Amino acid sequence: MTPPTSPADGGVVLGVDLGGTVVKAVLFGPDGTTLATTRRPTGARRGAEAVVETVLDVVAESQAAAEERGTPVRAVGLASCGIVDERAGVAVFSASFGWRDVPLRALVAERAGVPVALGHDVRAGGIAEARLGAGRGHEVFLFVPIGTGVGAAVMVGGRPFGGAHWQAGELGHLIVRPGGESCGCGQRGCVSTIVGGPAVLRHYRELAGTGPDGPTDAAGVAALARKGDPDAVRVWSEAVDVLAESLAVAVTLFDPSAIVLGGGLAGAGELLFAPVRERLAARLVFQVMPEVRPAELAYEAGCLGAALLARDLLDRDLPDPAAGWSG
Amino acid sequence: MTPPTSPADGGVVLGVDLGGTVVKAVLFGPDGTTLATTRRPTGARRGAEAVVETVLDVVAESQAAAEERGTPVRAVGLASCGIVDERAGVAVFSASFGWRDVPLRALVAERAGVPVALGHDVRAGGIAEARLGAGRGHEVFLFVPIGTGVGAAVMVGGRPFGGAHWQAGELGHLIVRPGGESCGCGQRGCVSTIVGGPAVLRHYRELAGTGPDGPTDAAGVAALARKGDPDAVRVWSEAVDVLAESLAVAVTLFDPSAIVLGGGLAGAGELLFAPVRERLAARLVFQVMPEVRPAELAYEAGCLGAALLARDLLDRDLPDPAAGWSG
């Protein structure tokens, strides 16, 4: 994996990714190598406080492990799902964790005794792709991970755009089928009701039933589509259409030179990329067609991005990614 | 009118707005007052070179007028419609002027002998609203002038976002009626085929015919709608619906704290603003509803914005607005 090195090398940093179900922490050495990895269920079913305790425990354990090696953690970066106010260091909202306005940066900093940065998981992934992955060389690009739903980080000059309320880039919640399926966000007919992994599986099962040999995830549906299974082809094709439609909207408004697709669905490779490129190009008239490229850092992007936020705290000559685009 | 003053006051500057039919130039004094205004038809029917000559003439005349006053022009700002590469100083494309890749900044600088900035008319208007108008106090807002069609400047920290190819913010060319009316951009069913001034008049005439006492512009249709004329109400209501729909998309992707509506259609006042606010709010679920406010600088915004670009050339301590969001 490409390591988060920096010119002004600042010792060991810890990158922590708070996903919907798992807290993952990676210790990165001074030369960017992975020294140790810790995973722990979030404990979200026991409530928001349990998640905070899990994070504090994982950070403390990682610090202890680093101390034992004689290379103490110099800074901690956290990347969380939900709505994250990066400037204030507050986890504003997460449906997964059931929390509101948790001052996570301060809580971790108090316990850890080192500088702490708090970012958003998708935006942190965008930072990692911008500096070390598929976004290199692109001043303006979109990082679009497709997992449970469709997320997006709008990257400009290596920095993510948060909007006025840290809610920018909600590509997965553009409405493409007015009056369509209910979405977790409260709207109906969102992109994520058709393009996400669960949606692809659900729509396949609606067409083909749920036999014992049937696929159990979107990758299984993709495999069937590759073999020409008509139901799988139909479901896959609709997901591709809706993704291309939403990307055309994003291109019209953001004018990026690249779109970096990541997450589970991007694992389908050319089964996804070839028709997305073709259908996006067909939708664009005056707009400039961006490169549509696979993400390079895959599941590590969250921890890596968090580690980059941590390293930036040590490299004061670099711009502060938490400051967004405000210059 | 609010003047473009600055702390490090730098003498007289010239702001030039290249609109579709008229070149307008305003001399701004050291204290920000308007010293003189010049208007000239672009001459676009005689070709791209004629437009360039018009611009050079208007600049030269304004400079001569300023010299006569004993206050020579210290810098020139140009704001053009079409696609403008602000970093390179090149007018990349304009259907109105029939030009491609005109190095306008260099041409004017050579003739004028003072520093010249080239910007885009909508983005320059956004800069004016950001510093002197309705965008003050908003870190992230959209400036949306509605004239012939719908434009948008995405303003972040007082600076406009250009995208990778200076084509960001094409709100008027989101497709809201697939397969609908042809648009000048080459697509069908764009926002601007329903929300622009000509579209509102045309749709009214399709319903009500073109009697001798009928309205001759969108303001006339608005006046009839205000009186309850059913055809006018129907056309106006559809324009409001489509505008609200496109703004909902923009809010989902940009998360602004304000939307500043300007241009001719915004002159309809609460006939526009009240239902736009109501219908936009009705479309938002998880998104934060932005303030929807009228522009404050009206038709002066282009020249003012251009003058601010010129003044920034003199105030080196301010960030360069032409640098976009690249930090």
Would you kindly provide a written description of the structure presented here, covering whatever features stand out?
By secondary structure, the first copy, chain A, is of the alpha/beta class. In chain A, about 35% of the residues lie in helices and about 20% in strands. The first copy, chain A, is built from nine helices and 13 strands. In chain A, strand 2 and strand 3 form a beta hairpin. Chain A is globular, with a radius of gyration of 20 Å. Chains A and B meet through helix 7 of A and helix 7 of B.
Helix/strand/pairing category of chain A: alpha/beta
Relevant CATH superfamily of the largest domain in chain A: ATPase, nucleotide binding domain
Distance between the termini of chain A: 31 Å
Mean pLDDT of chain A: 91
How are the strands of the biggest sheet of chain A laid out side by side? 3-2-1-4-8
The most extensive contact between chains is: A-B, 44 and 44 residues
Q: Let me know the number of strands of chain A.
A: 13
Number of domains of chain A: 2
CATH fold label of the largest domain in chain A: Nucleotidyltransferase, domain 5
The helix-strand sequence of chain A is EEEHEEEEHEHEEEHHHHEHEH
Summarize the structure.
The structure is a homodimer of 327-residue chains. The first copy, chain A, has 327 residues and is an alpha/beta fold.
Which terms summarize this structure?
homodimer, alpha/beta, Nucleotidyltransferase, domain 5, five-stranded mixed beta sheet, 21% strand, disordered C terminus
